[in-house]
Structure formats: C-alpha cells, structure tokens
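To whoever picks this up:

The parser on our side crashed when reading a file containing two proteins. I've narrowed it down to the boundary between the first structure block and the second sequence. Both blocks are reproduced below exactly, byte for byte. First block:
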Amino acid sequence: MAKPLGPTGEFFRRRDEWRKHPRLSNQLRQATPGLGIAIVAFGIYLVGEAAYKKIYPEQPPSKTHSH
C-alpha cells in the first residue's frame, strides 16, 4: 500500500485540490471551441491544393515575343 502522508503531504494535497476542479479542467478546449474543426478543414484544404497542383502543374510562360 501507499506510504501514509505526513502533515506536510496533507498540506500540499489540500493546496493542489483546486487544480482538479471540473471548471478548470479542459480549459483549452472550452476556450477555443472551433479550433479542432478549423485545423481539420485547413488540412483538407492543403491536401486538396497539393493534389490540384500535382494534376494541373503550373505552365511556365512562353518565351516568344510578338510585336
């Protein structure tokens, strides 16, 4: 079993209880509600753009001069 906590251990356990409060857990997700969807959408955009450039490569401008 675990070693019993002394008075110092109990003091620090009580001091750290606020970190486990439900309102404080998962704050980043609550602060940025659409970030996950935005990252996925941006990733799909990047993959689509890469595929488009692979299918339709950019043509260099022709070097003929017409006056």
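<<boundary where parser fails>>
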Amino acid sequence: MAVRLLAYEVSDLCLGKPPLRSLPVSATLADAVSAIRYSDDGCVSVWNCDHSSPDKNDAADDCRCVGKISMVDVICHLCREENLLAPSSALKSPVSVLVSKVPGRVRPVEPSSSLLEAIDLILQGAQNLVVPIKINPRRKLQKSSPNPTAHNGREFCWLTQEDVIRFLLSSIGVFTPLPALSIDTLGAISTEFLSIRYHSPAASAVEAISSSLAEQTSVAVVDDEGILIGEISPFTLACCDEMVAAAIATLSAGDLMAYIDCGGPPEDLVRVVKARLEDRKLEGMLEEFTISSSLSSFSLSSSSDEESSSSLPRSARYSRSSSYSARMVRRAEAIVCHPWSSLAAVMIQAISHRVNYVWVVEEDCSLAGIVTFSNMLEILYQHLQSMA
C-alpha cells in the first residue's frame, strides 16, 4: 500500500477538477470582483496573456499563471485610507497591484510530477499548484468568454493544500502510528499566530488579515486574558462583498465578527457603519456602502423563500444578505482542538469545516497555538520520505 501511494502522480489528484477561471493581468479590480462572484472557490487566477485578443500562435510557455486574486485581497486593498476616500477609483486599478510579489505562491507543475514533489513545493511556500488538464472536446467549440479557461489551447486546474490532505487522508493507514499520536507529541502545534483583542479596532487587523491570507491561516480574536473568543477568517471574509471594507474601517474586532457571521449583519451594525462613515466624512465609501445595502434589501424583499432565492442570478444571491454570500456558509466561530487531540482527528476536523488550520486551546479555553495543513504535511512528508 505504501509503494502504491508513492507511485501516485499529480494527475491522479486532478481527476474531476474544474478548469481555472482566469483574468488577464490587464484586467481591473472591478473585473476581478465580478469574476470572483461567479467563481466556485472564491478566487480567480491571473494570467500574463491577453485573452481579449484573437488567439495567437505563441508558445504555451508565453501564457502562464502569475497569481490569484480573492475577495479578501480586494477588501484589504479598499481598507487603505486613500481607497476609503474613493473606492470606485480604487476598483479601476489593474489586478496586478494585488498579485503577490512573493515568488512561488503559484507554481506550475506537470501532471507527471510525483506526489512527493507536489508536497515538497507546498512546503516551500506554494499555495496553488497549476496543472495542465485535457480540454473537453465540447468546450473547444464554445466561443471565448470574459473569463476564459483555455490558454493557447490548454486548460489548467490547480491543487491546494486541502486537496493533498484529503488525498493522503484516504490512505491514512499507511502513516501508522502517526495518525493516532497527539498533535502535541508530534510537535505539530505552532505558537506563532496572528491575533487581535476583542475591543480593538478592526482596522488595526488589516495587515494581519492580509498576512493570514498569504499564510492560509486566520486572525484569532481574544480577550484580555488570552481566551479565544472567535476569529476573523479570510475564508469568512471571502464570502462577503467588497463593501465589508467599510465595516472593517469603522467597527471593533468583536463587532466585525458579528457583522460577517453567516446570515448577514445585524441592522444596528449597518446603521453604526453608516454613521461612522459620515463622521469620518468618507462620502465615497458611504455612497458605495449604501448602494450595496439597498441592493441587499431589495434582494431580500424579492426573495420570500429559498426556492425564489435559488432562481436569482448568482450575482444577486451574492449580495442578498448585505455583505454575506449565499454561495457559502461560514461562521466567525473558531474551530478548535486540544493539545491531546490526535493528528487524524484534527485532519478530519479541518477538512470537514473547509479550513486550512485548527486553533489549539487549553482546558480553560486559553489559546495555545494553531495547527495548519502545512504543519500536518511536513509530518506526513517526512514519513513518506522514509518509505521512499
């Protein structure tokens, strides 16, 4: 069984993966927002080839993925003071301003690459592995769209840490006795994590949110005694629209958790955000926020039940609960485990909640650390290497 696992290639993990939706690097942030709303994974890939022009006979190497953009990138960008003053102008910026300058975040990988090679790249810092896939013959007949999936006759998908962890979990018996050992015993708990006090301004966490997105973790919200209360998660923010930047700029960390929690923000917090935008004379953001809130109210009033909601275009459903997206359901409540939890239990816990990490708390709920997919992969990778 171990030999069989080592024989797997990247292509084996790509079965059933959809082709990447993409944007040219010349697209605007407004284009990115529109594309993300129709994306199933909350982000779009950015390419250095221009798909708005007729196909060229360039080499495939001249058309490559240079990064990815999520709604969280856009939100953090709008939280900058100059962009709060003129959000509509900020959305006219090219997506290139948000593409990570850190090399290796997105890495091209051949389908024939081994599972070990893929894990090694992830441990080196790759968030997404871009893999060529076969084009469905039917799609060759389709006309080009604003968000094409084909690049010089090739389509691509990408693999994430979650994809690899899911794949390894299906063969977890190979790693015996590691799965039954505690995360504390295995040294999987990291004591370096991002946090913010419950009553601190949410705006002070913008850099931490941006860092947690890059590290695929989250920002813990704690009280003065270090007790974990909740989190400000990029995954939760990715379910919001771009106008949640107004809430980040005006609310406390605790109120922001309530604002982005599933089901949409309370009306009293919406009023607080509007009042504080007025006080700070952020007319541009106030106007955009008011329009967003009005569209949400209209969507809610025109959708009396789930059946009528499902008949709405995805873009309308996206903003039907103010800054909350019906595309996903994700609470601001933190997912936790204990130092004595087993590796297998924590892996299953993270996968079932669709997060790349689990917070580690003591018996008194004080925050002890965090366990990430990267921590787990490092342990499993060392075991795989010993079998190779």
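After patching the parser it read the second block fine. DSSP finds 18 helices and 13 strands in the chain. The first strand starts at residue 22 and ends at 24.
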